[in-house]
């Protein structure tokens, strides 16, 4: 089975995707990358040392409390005040343990930081509030797909604020910093089965949509991955012009969804739905629209023959590629540009979706009865 971008997002939690490399424990989920044994070992080692010393220290404390308790005013506890062997012991033994932990930790750190030469590179962009993955052939995806049994290097950048990329099951985490590239690598040998996946989390609080930056990792057998990446590079071209609005639109809208609702409710950006009486995002570009932009201007006044934008499409296109040019009142300039990420065809798909907004559910999925010639097409929508 080849999962494609046309598959719908689901929220089902998958545990134990693929075969585990290290077992699930009380503290750790199953490990699924080649570095997992290294990380888990040092984690468990430090953990057991903590248990040991916790019991030892607290135990001795209770023994002494009992043994040296004061039985009356006239009794003074007068214990030994110096013991050379004891003092040497509790200095030297912890020093050895700590130095040992340093070397084990340093070894793991070096492994985690040394990217194998043959690593497959995927470019990652973090933005409020989504991840975007770009493959060497130009294919783009919202969830991460990686080949099994091959080192994968992620080169990451941020569009706006500090994010942090974390794949729990792979035991890898790296800050994604605006104005700088960071990277991490991993190798997952066991493909995920069917619908199973590993979680991606953002682990740096980055604003109101922080908790929505959850995505999935699918590990595909190498040939299946190669096919997927080729297919994915072409997916938008393969959608026919008439089907763009409902096949491609909703897929692309997923990058918009964390800021732009469809039901008129308040988001980080203006809703695509009707919230000020001027209709939805497409309807409010009509002549005479009093939808307010740029501090009190009417949107209807800048669109039309001889005006700043000849067509509503021109205004919408500009708003996607150059979001800071016009700001809907009272929203600030917070949207990242989609220049270089959305082709003209992709923009067309989004505008076509806006024109047909009444045929979509509030979550961005197309209403089944609105799908043209439902019989054959419904299958492709899955
Ligand atoms: Cu991105 Cu939290």
Question: Layout of SSEs?
Answer:
Blueprint: H1 36-67, H2 84-113, E1 120-127, E2 130-134, E3 140-141, E4 144-147, E5 152-158, E6 163-167, E7 172-176, E8 182-186, E9 198-202, E10 215-220, H3 222-238, H4 244-253, E11 292-293, E12 297-298, H5 312-321, H6 344-355, H7 374-381
Parallel strand pairs: 1-5, 4-10
Antiparallel strand pairs: 1-2, 2-3, 5-8, 6-7, 6-9, 9-10, 11-12
Helix pairs in contact: 1-2, 4-6
The protein binds dinuclear copper ion.
Provide an overview of this structure.
With 382 residues, the protein is of the alpha+beta class. The two termini are 13 Å apart. Helix 1 packs antiparallel against helix 2 (84-113). It has three domains: 36-113, no CATH class; 120-238, Cupredoxins -  blue copper proteins (Immunoglobulin-like, Sandwich); 241-381, Cytochrome c-like domain (Cytochrome Bc1 Complex, Chain D, domain 2). The strands form three sheets. It has a five-stranded mixed β-sheet, with no helix packed on it. It has a five-stranded mixed β-sheet with strand order 4-10-9-6-7. The chain contains seven helices and twelve strands. The longest helix is centred in the N-terminal third of the chain and has 32 residues, at 36-67. The chain has helices at 36-67, 84-113, 222-238, 244-253, 312-321, 344-355, 374-381; strands spanning 120-127, 130-134, 140-141, 144-147, 152-158, 163-167, 172-176, 182-186, 198-202, 215-220, 292-293, 297-298. The protein is elongated and about 95 Å long. Bound molecules: dinuclear copper ion (CUA). Dinuclear copper ion (CUA) binds at residues 126, 163, 202, 204-206, 210, 213.
């Amino acid at each position: 089975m080849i999962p494609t971008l046309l598959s719908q997002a689901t929220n089902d939690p998958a545990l134990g995707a693929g075969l585990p490399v290290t077992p699930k424990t009380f503290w750790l989920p199953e490990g699924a990358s080649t570095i997992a044994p290294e990380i888990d070992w040092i984690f468990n080692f430090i953990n057991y040392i903590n248990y040991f010393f916790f019991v030892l220290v607290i135990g001795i404390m209770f023994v002494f409390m009992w043994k040296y308790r004061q039985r009356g005013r006239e009794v003074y506890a007068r214990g030994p005040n110096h013991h050379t062997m004891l003092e040497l012991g509790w200095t030297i033994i912890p020093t050895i343990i700590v130095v040992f932990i340093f070397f084990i930790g340093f070894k793991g750190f070096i492994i985690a930081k040394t990217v194998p030469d043959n690593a497959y590179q995927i470019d990652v962009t973090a933005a409020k509030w989504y991840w975007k993955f770009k493959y060497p052939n130009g294919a783009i995806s919202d969830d991460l797909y990686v080949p099994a049994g091959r080192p994968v290097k992620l080169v990451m950048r941020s569009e706006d604020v500090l994010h942090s990329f974390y794949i729990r099951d792979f035991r890898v985490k790296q800050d994604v910093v605006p104005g700088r590239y960071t990277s991490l690598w991993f190798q997952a040998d066991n493909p995920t089965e069917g619908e199973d996946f590993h979680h991606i989390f953002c682990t740096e609080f980055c604003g109101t949509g922080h908790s929505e930056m959850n995505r999935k990792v699918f590990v595909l057998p190498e040939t299946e991955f190669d096919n997927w990446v080729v297919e994915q590079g072409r997916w938008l071209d393969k959608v026919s012009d008439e089907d763009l609005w409902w096949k491609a639109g909703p897929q692309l809208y997923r990058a918009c969804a964390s800021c732009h609702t469809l039901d008129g409710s308040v988001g980080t950006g203006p809703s695509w739905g009707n919230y000020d009486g001027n209709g939805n995002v497409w309807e409010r570009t009509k002549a005479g629209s009093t939808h307010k932009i740029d501090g009190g201007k009417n949107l209807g006044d800048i669109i039309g023959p001889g005006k700043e934008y000849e067509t509503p499409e021109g205004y919408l296109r500009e708003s996607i590629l150059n979001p800071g040019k016009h700001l809907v009142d009272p929203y600030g300039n917070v949207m990242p540009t989609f220049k270089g990420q959305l082709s003209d065809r992709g923009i067309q798909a989004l505008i076509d979706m806006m024109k047909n907004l009444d045929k979509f559910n509030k979550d961005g999925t197309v209403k089944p009865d609105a799908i043209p010639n439902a019989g054959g097409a419904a299958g492709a929508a899955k």
